[in-house]
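Methods: example folding runs. The two proteins below were folded one after another, and each record is reproduced exactly as written to the output file, sequence line first and structure-token line second.
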Amino acid sequence: MRAVAAELGLTTMAAYRYVADRDELEALIVEEVLRPLDTTPPGPRRSSASCTRPALPAPTG
């Protein structure tokens, strides 16, 4: 908290006006860092299951 407060130009105690404790500060930081990531599950994929013929011919004999 001391380093964060100093970076913001606050005293350590003044930082507690904005967050309750270190855990809340860490949660806010993680939320902010992860916000731009797309966490939407991907839709159906076109995988090898959608192939209409095998890649190699079946062995003979």
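Second run, written to the same file directly after the first:
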Amino acid sequence: MSLHHSPRIVTDRLSVYLDAANRKSYSGSGTLWRNLAQNTANATLTGGPTFNSRNSGIITFDGSNDYASLSLPTFSSTFSICFWVQITTLVANSEIQLFAPSTDIASISMYGTTTSTIRFLSWNGSSARYASQYIVQNKWYNLVMVNSSNTIYYINGAFDSLHASTGTLDSGTATIASILGTARFLTGNIAAVSIYNKALSSSEALQNYNALKGRFNL
């Protein structure tokens, strides 16, 4: 696995790792966003997301029809999903999709309560689970959802909240920056995505944040 930053992110049971700053993951052009964790589950960029060299490398999504899709490997009911994301535009009382499996279970969304504050949430098929901390537009965040016996959120390496309800992450096509390529398109930037076939601990969530925070001047 070609991870050049130091300290490194957690690699134990890492199933998907997409990083726009790593040329082995994204060349700077084209539609292939390669998974550095294994030879499967590469992402395909659709609609024309663009590469920008800011923050060592990011993918910009225009909120119109841009998204990425990938075929997920088989997961257990315990997993973790991590994003480095910057939301640049969000209309009040609207929702954008950060991550959506084909069944819409264990999906991750951002909900705009106003034009400047955003709630990070996930959906388990029957109810939404909201993070406690509000986030704002035009700032970079490391957002982590851990699903095991409970659902736990971490924001920028710090524990945010714990929820009793859980979801499952089925194999099949998933989308990033939209809900299955049909709606809730994200306007903003994504730098890196990692998905683990295990529950990250609090120290591992912090390690992942520390590994890349300098890239975003945090």
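Comment on the second run: Residues 40 and 147 are 23 Å apart (CA to CA).
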